[in-house]
Amino acid sequence: MTPTPKSPRDSALVRAARRQSVPYTPVWFMRQAGRSLPEYRKVREGVGMLDSCRKPDLVAEITMQPVRRHGVDAAILFSDIVVPLAAVGVDLDIVPGVGPVVAQPFRTLADLERLPELTLEHLPYITEGVQLVLPELGDTPLIGFAGAPFTLASYLIEGGPSKNHERTKAMMHGDPQLWHQLCGRLAQISGATLRVQALAGASVVQLFDSWVGVLSRLDYDAFVQPHSAAALSAVADLDVPKIHFGTCTGELLASMGAAGADVVGVDFRTSLTDARARIGDQYAVQGNLDPALLFAPWPALEKVVRSIVAEGAQSSGHIFNLGHGVLPGTDPEVLTRVVELVHEASAH
After folding, report:
1. Which of 279, 274, 277 is nearest to 264 (CA)?
2. Is 31 a catalytic residue?
């Protein structure tokens, strides 16, 4: 019998991440505390993204908003993957409509001196934000997260978002020693960020590798997996389930799991059935509704949601999510209906 939750560790989401029995499929959404919620836009008015992430009371409020509105089975701490880079002194900004922009891109060995080790003292607002939100969450688990070394390296090398990642790949192959030194430092920053959140009280952590799908599996295994594994290993002694997610990663799923994940995130381009065939049954899976389908008529959306729930039930653990983030124009009421449908369709 599945126990009644008495703490986040007993929750459906944590149990699913551990591939234990659950009363229903748990659900949360990437970017759930974001641009689709009017209450989010209201509290963010006039406050830049980086500043928002450094205000513990605002972090706690935004983290709670989707839990209150949608009844999701987990909160994810409101922050951004580049916040730790800014915390150690990298000159960057999150430009509306563009994303992270780095003032001086990283291109040489000398640039490594601008990346010191990240410690607990660099992120006091994250620790305080976690501690503020935990009492209101109660039995609902909190997910902490960090950007993976490859994605952080891409922003630093390219100077911002990139379509082709040409400078990143050029360094990777043209100066592999510099590449591995850079990613080694970023793995420390990523791992320390996960650890800070877990020590503060997060029950689950997720490593986001947003852009890693631009690589072949051969390149991923040689240039990326060791650094992602190092980042995930930073919380290996804390007994928190680890989710590893990236987009366009259908060919990389097995390698991403082998980096040290308990849960492999699957984007909407690969079915959960195909993902399971590629990774085996030693991992739980997370995903994978196409965010664009939230704009479809309800009968069509309901059919797809039920299909994903049924596919997920074939794995030993499934956390329902989107195949990437909530799009800004999404109707919040549709998200709430999806949560209710997932719970109803999967209830035992």
Report:
1. 279
2. yes
Alpha-carbon gap, residue 72 to 68, rounded angstroms: 8
Fold entry, domain 8-346: TIM Barrel (3.20.20)
Mean pLDDT over residues 156-183, rounded? 97
Does the annotation count 44 as an active-site position? yes
Contact 312, 272 (CB under 8 A): yes
Which residue bears the tokens 């959960």? 272
Q: Is residue 24 annotated as part of the catalytic site, yes or no?
A: no
Report d(CA 11, CA 249) in Å as an integer. 28
Nearest Cα to 120, choosing from 189, 187, 55?
Answer: 189
Per residue in 213-224, pLDDT (tens digit) is 999 999 999 999
> Which residue among the candidates 15, 19, 44, 54 is catalytic per the annotation?
44
Query: Is 41 one of the catalytic residues?
Result: no
Task: Determine which one of 31, 114, 269, 278 is catalytic.
Answer: 31
Which residues, in sequence order, are bridge partners of residue 102?
Answer: 92
Helix (H) or strand (E) holding 146: strand 142-147
- Determine whether 269 is an active site residue: no
pTM score: 0.95
Helix, strand, coil percentages, rounded to 5, for the chain: 50, 10, 35
- Cα–Cα distance measured from residue 85 to residue 117, given in angstroms and rounded to the nearest whole number: 10
**Contact predicate 211/91, CB 8 Å:** no
Catalytic residue (choose from 35, 269, 278, 306): 35
Q: Are 36 and 66 in contact (CB under 8 A)?
A: no
- Of the residues 9, 10, 18, 80, only one is catalytic, namely 80
Please give the single-letter amino acid code of residue 216: S
DSSP 38-66: HHHHHHHTT--HHHHHT-HHHHHHHHHHH
| pLDDT per residue as tens digits for the range 221-279 | 999 999 999 999 999 999 999 999 999 999 999 999 999 999 999 999 999 999 999 99
Write down the catalytic residue from 24, 125, 155, 283.
155
